[in-house]
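Let's practice the habit of predicting before peeking. Look at the sequence and jot down your guess about where helices and strands might fall. Then scroll down.
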Amino acid sequence: PTPDQVDAEAALSAPEAGDVGVGYAWGDVGRLLRRYQQQGPDLYPLAFNLNNSLAGRQQIGALMQALPHMPQVTALLLQNNSIDDWALQLLVTALQHPSRGCVGIICLDLGYNRLGQGSTVMLTSLLHRPPKAARAASLTTESVVLGLSSGLMNKAPAQTMQNMPGPAAAPASHPLLTQLVLAGNPVGDSGAEVVCKLVATGDSLLQLLDLSRCGITERLAGCLQGLLEGARWVKWSDKHAAG
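Done guessing? Here is the structure:
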């Protein structure tokens, strides 16, 4: 369907109560789809770059409506959009329910938003599958390092995306993230510890984790170094990186 047709369909079915803010406009869905389709070949169709692009958290509602029409997207870049914990919860809900969102997101860049210490708990379902779900799920998405962290996004887009994997073939459930960027969000020690314990002790597929400029203390950074030895590339402060 065209962006205009999607807008018309969305206008006939109002979102769930509380899903969108007062500034939400139905035309935003079509605008997002057009932006996605007009990206260069280095991004389209596997990545959607919305860095510095959303007009506040209320547009997460529009993104939720647009994602089902982008089935090939595997990377979602959302840096510097004033996304807070409320908006993050909406986004996570969309990503973990295939009927409401794109089922192929494995790389999520949330750098430099307004996520607090509790935000990492919301991301648990995208990083770790409960035991029963883990046994039932059949994931075919290849885990690769694509360099979507804040420090690596300075590379040419073509270099960044050339090894982007395609979407999983009819997964039984949503895929787990292989890359997560939280740089510049004040998640602090408690928020960082939640993510790191999942990576170290759970069934997480995470291979790139950026927690730079997140207010992590030197004491915790030292502890994390031992926890995260199994990850391919991890950055948890401006002074500490492991690869």
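How did you do? The longest helix spans residues 188-201.
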